[in-house]
Amino acid sequence: MTNPPTTPPSAPPERPDDASQVGVRFIDPAALARIGNLELVARWVVEGFISGLHRSPHLGFSTDFAEHRQYVPGDDIRHIDWRVYARTERYYLKEFEADTNTNFMVLLDVSGSMGYGSGALTKLAYAKYLAASLTYFSHRQRDRVGFASFDEDILDYVPPSAKHLQQVLYSIDRATPRGQGSLGRALAKIAESQRRRGFMLLLSDLYEEPARVISALGPLRDAGHDVVVMQLLDPMERTFDFSDAATFEDVESGVRLPVVPSRLRAEYQRLVSEHVATMQRRLGEHRIDYTLVDTGKPLDALLFDYLLRRERLRTVK
Q: 147: helix, coil or strand?
């Protein structure tokens, strides 16, 4: 990542060299933590992000998120919005509100391992900011928003509704790390409860074998839901850049183990990289979108990544 820009958050972004940086203002999650109010953070992040998208002429998809979708061959050209074309030089079709509403659910892992953080934020705290921002963003698109938190089972559940924004944000805000985690039982219950197809966003550190993750997500995918997985890892979980010998404790099982980091670092990094690569490959084989999230990085790029993935899923349909 480049250094944060010197312009204030409300200023339009400079023309990027890479289209993936459009609308990105490099918001440090640790700075967001000082704001305190989760809803205020979500609104500030999303409104600023969207403002940046609207001001950029280089966006590859609609900036009128709730009202347009990109033209694909076979669409009725009578529905092309020529005003949008004049602004973007890309073809977009006007949609009715009833066509754009969908169920959007955040599935938040709150198992004990999500409570780890080497810096200002734990993985769970980062995930909560991300969940709140994407929920607010989806509500702004007129989606019905819902939420579920889980460890080995569902702990909190808010069914998708156009009227549930405040309830979802409240549930996200009060989520705390606890106990051992397992995806299977919780996600099976969620799949059973969601009769209407929708968009499922899983936020987890995925401390399970890839085969078990695939098995747990299967019922959601089989039910016709679009599934996006964001695996959150703390920077130190990837680098193991500890200097002194210490006793490490598994926050879920309580098992303690004396370790000399320098002796294990190379092998540890290899195993983590292998786990991440396997997870990405196996999920891709099952048509499940995957993103690795470094909780030491700014939040904005993830919003853009999410928007690209969601647009792609909608276009594929």
A: strand
CA distances in angstroms from 83 to 61, 64, 88, 135, 208, listed in the order given: 14, 12, 9, 29, 49
Return left, alpha or beta for 190; rule: phi > 0 is left, psi -120 to 50 is alpha, else beta. alpha
What letter represents residue 261's amino acid? P
Provide CB contacts within 8 A for 109, sequence distance 6+: 127, 149, 150, 151, 181, 183, 202, 203, 204, 205
Q: Which domains does the chain have, with CATH numbers?
A: 60-100 (no CATH), 101-316 (3.40.50.410)
Q: What is the pLDDT of residues 134-166, one digit of tens each?
A: 999 899 888 999 999 999 999 999 999 999 999
What is the structure's pLDDT at 187? 95
| 234 CB-near residues (< 8 Å, 6+ apart) | 116, 117, 118, 119, 122, 123, 295, 296
Biggest distance spanned by C-alpha atoms of the chain? 69
- Hey, what are 111's tokens? 């198992």
| 234: amino acid identity, one letter | D
Residue 155 has φ and ψ, to the nearest 5°, of -105, -35
Q: What share of the chain is helix, strand, coil (3-state, %, to 5)?
A: 45, 20, 35
Give CA separation, 251 vs 112, 114, 186, 254, in Å.
6, 9, 20, 6
The Cα–Cα gap between 25 and 21 comes to 9
Q: What is the pLDDT of residues 201-254, one digit of tens each?
A: 999 999 999 999 999 999 999 999 999 999 999 999 999 888 888 788 777 777
Q: How far is CA 112 from CA 58, 207, 253, 254, in A?
A: 42, 11, 9, 10
Q: Which amino acid is at 217?
A: L
